[in-house]
Amino acid sequence: MVYVHGANEERDIDPARIPPGQILTTNFPVLHHGDVPYYNNMALWNLRLFGLVEEEVTIGYGEFMKLPMREFTNDIHCVTTWSRLDNVWGGVAVSTIMEKIRLKPEAKHVMLHAEQGWSTNLPLDDFMRETSLLAVRHGGELLTPKHGYPVRMVVPHLYFWKSAKWLRGIEFMAEDKPGFWEQHGYHMYGDPFQEERFAEGYGDDEEDYSFIFNTPD
Ligand SMILES: Nc1nc2c(c(=O)[nH]1)N[C@H]1C(S)=C(S)[C@@H](COP(=O)(O)O)O[C@H]1N2
Ligand SMILES: [Mo]
Questions:
Q1: Which domain holds residue 93?
Q2: Which DSSP state fits 52?
Q3: pTM higher than the cut 0.85
Q4: Is residue 69 part of a domain?
């Protein structure tokens, strides 16, 4: 039996699903750097696929919402130690997006670009896992603004900071490069089952901690 915060009860959950150092909750905390973007004209929204591709592609909102959608159920593991199991997402499989472009063979890494210059990096193979998606719904409802409306990335096998909210660009790169939190000491890969929370040496400076708690609602 595992105690679940939010539900305030013990539940019969396979402990193997819970990475080390994580606490289960049924709440859905909101964490990000900066402000929640506000959209008053979706005609101005687009998603740009660029970098090491034969031809750059831009997908508008109307076109995106007409792509084939699927349901994905997976677990969230946040580096700040909460986990939330069995999230039902609706969205577009990464394979559907990849049909729009032709990658150059040198492409091995991906940078996800969000509104306001926020970014996060991951290997191409992890981006392309069958479980990775571009979500537009959570729990059957359209994403709320604070959880990433209109489109957020979901990469369930890595810590949740790799799941960029307010996604606007997918950049294909030859070499790995640190995104926003990675430049501030978070791990380059972020496997929750290996507890890859921070880069080596993170936390040695008092300044490091100012970023962990900078999480306005
Ligand atoms: N654009 C953007 N996406 C982001 C972040 C951010 O600051 N900006 N924070 C990440 C972090 S650290 C976490 S834990 C999750 C939180 O998602 P949630 O607010 O939906 O729980 O979003 C991730 N995606
Ligand atoms: Mo986070």
A1: 42-211
A2: S
A3: yes
A4: yes
Q: How many domains does the chain have?
A: 1
Residue to substitute in 31, 79, 186, 187 for testing ligand 1 pocket (most ligand atoms within 8 angstroms of CB): 31
- What is the domain-level CATH number for residue 69? 3.90.420.10
Q: Identify the residues whose C-beta falls under 6 Å from ligand 1.
A: 28-33, 78, 114, 118, 147-148, 160-161, 163-166
Rounded distance from Cα 67 to ligand 1 centre (Å)? 24
- Rounded distance from Cα 161 to ligand 2 centre (Å): 5
Rounded Cα distance between 161 and 70, Å, is 22
- pLDDT tens digit sequence for 5-55: 999 999 999 999 999 999 999 999 999 999 999 999 999 999 999 999 999
Distance (Å, rounded) from C-alpha 126 to C-alpha 110? 9
Question: Number of helices and strands (H, E) in the chain?
Answer: 5, 13
